[in-house]
Amino acid sequence: MTFKEFFSFRVNKAFWINILVMVVLAIAIGFGVMKWLDVYTHHGEAVVVPDVKGMTVDEATRLFHNSKLECVVSDSTYVKKQPAGVILDVTPAVGQRVKEGRTIYLTINTLSIPLRTVPDVADNSSLRQAQARVLAAGFKLNEEEWISGEKEWVYEVKYKGRSLVAGEEIPLGATLTLVVGDGTSELESDSLGTDSLDLIIPETSASQEEDSWF
Questions:
Q1: Predicted local confidence at residue 148, as pLDDT
Q2: Residue 137 banded pLDDT, cuts 50, 70, 90
Q3: How far is CA 60 from the centre of its chain?
Q4: 70 with 99, same domain?
Q5: pTM, rounded to two decimals
Q6: Is the pLDDT confidence value at 214 over 60?
Q7: What is the CATH number of the domain that holds 69?
Q8: Which of 21, 115, 126, 106 is nearest to 63 (CA)?
Q9: How many domains does the structure of the chain reveal?
Q10: What is the pLDDT of residue 19?
Q11: What is the rounded distance in angstroms from the CA atom of residue 68 to the CA atom of residue 102?
């Protein structure tokens, strides 16, 4: 058989029919696989992530369920101006298109106020240094309480009238009071008292001398 006769349809009719059938089957199988993948992966079926910020977890769960989505709390943070337990953020972000059944991760406002260590400023900081460190740590300040001591030297830190120790933790955002020296020392106060006595003693002696003279 010549090369030309081998490729002749009339001579090898069955061969070419088999080739055609295999091509058709290959196309059909490929189309079927693609269709199955579309169904399996829900190709083209997408929903928009709803805006649930400011909602409670229960409210968001119902909304996500209606949108054929799942949700789970994955993180928490503290925002003072927001109610405890409300949703602050979601991942994927609001407005993104995701497949049905996708899990949405929630970040909520912590249910309790976090504690923070009070800066160690008592007896080792000036008033200005202490104010800067306390405010930077996330606390607030009352008016200073002044006592006898080195001028503008911080001797104590108080919270609700109680003296705090170094390393103690209190609620973030709490208001503290710095106990600060007013520039007068105890020695100066004692000196003023002694001077007053010195002024009184000579008068008493003079009176006694007058009585004895008469």
A1: 94
A2: very high
A3: 21
A4: yes
A5: 0.50
A6: no
A7: 3.30.10.20
A8: 106
A9: 2
A10: 76
A11: 8
